[in-house]
Specification:
Largest sheet: none
Structural class: mainly alpha
Number of strands: 0
Low-confidence stretches: 395-400
CATH architecture: Up-down Bundle
Oligomer: single chain
Number of helices: 19
Helix content: over 70%
CATH superfamily: MFS general substrate transporter like domains
Amino acid sequence: MNAKKLFWILFLLNLFNYIDRQVLYSVFPLLQAELRLNDMHLGALASAFMLVYMFYAPFVGYFADRTPRQKWIGASALIWSAATLACSAAKGYISLLFTRGLIGVGEAGFTTLAQPFLAEHFPKTKRATALACFGLALPAGSALGYLLGGLIGQHWGWRIAFMLAGIPGLFLGFLAFTQLQDKQRLSQKPAEIPHFKEYFALLKNRPFLFICLAHAMITFIIGGLSAWMPTYLHRYLQMDVARAGAVFGMLVVLCGAAGTYLGGKLGDKMLFFSPKAYFWVIGLALAGLLPPAWIGIHTGSVICALICFGLAITCLFLPTGPVAAALVAATRAPVRSMAFAVNIFIIHALGDALSPVLIGQVSDACGLKAAVLLCCLAAVPGIVFTWIASSYERRGTNPF
């Protein structure tokens, strides 16, 4: 299969990966009213997904590095799509919590494998751009999840929103089974098959580890804002559920896509001038999101708030391609699925497995504005971790 066809299959899978993940957040107010939930209960729905997601990733990463990865990719799409359909039939909070966790199984299997699988089909000098284009599915899928979830939920109920979101992934999962081919696994020699001890070796890879920690802070912010910004717009900017989902979805797809693409291009262009190019993009993006986020939360103007939130989202998505490219460059090909599994575990354990429920708790105590501001301040340790990762360049231990 040529690289272009492979890219589009994986991109569409990634698109529905994020649609199915994010549709929940646009119907938070509807769930809260029907099931009589508080903000912490809503946050726990997001955290349950992430807990399953991060604990399952090392399992699938280990076995996928020993077997044809396209089978895991196809099966994962079928699992998360079937689980999304099951959400529509949930009879109460506990059953909804369970099905959200099952979505985490499928999406962890896909995300662990898709980026290294794709990266191996592109040269190093084009890798950040390719991975950034693949990453455009995050803002696009998230936006569609908010938009479709809000509109469908407002008019036909949250159950129909889940039902319609889950169907396309079933067809795409079958396509992955039949069309993708893992050439690296076909040519892999027995001596190259990784063992479980490789996980411990990855944890000793300091450039890799600090990239993961910086990525965790980005994920903390993205996870928190993804879960709560539609509700924030509903509460503080007087938007109904459908409009809040649509407005935030448009911000994510326009500003997030622009940031994702620009970050990948910058990373590849700057790599010709500095081996620290990826780190520069990540660190400057994290620093750049703080001022507009603070202004957006404190301004009394709806237009000014939305412009500032758009700028913050652009900065937040700039590191998408550079982070993925840095992770690929810092690890050996035979263990890349395992490396991305470790990354997934770290970024979700310290990131969006915590932020939605923590924001819910702070919101119950101090208000949602204070909770969102505290979430954005995770950029500060993210800058520190990025600087530490970049310092290995000065010491002559170039991870690239």
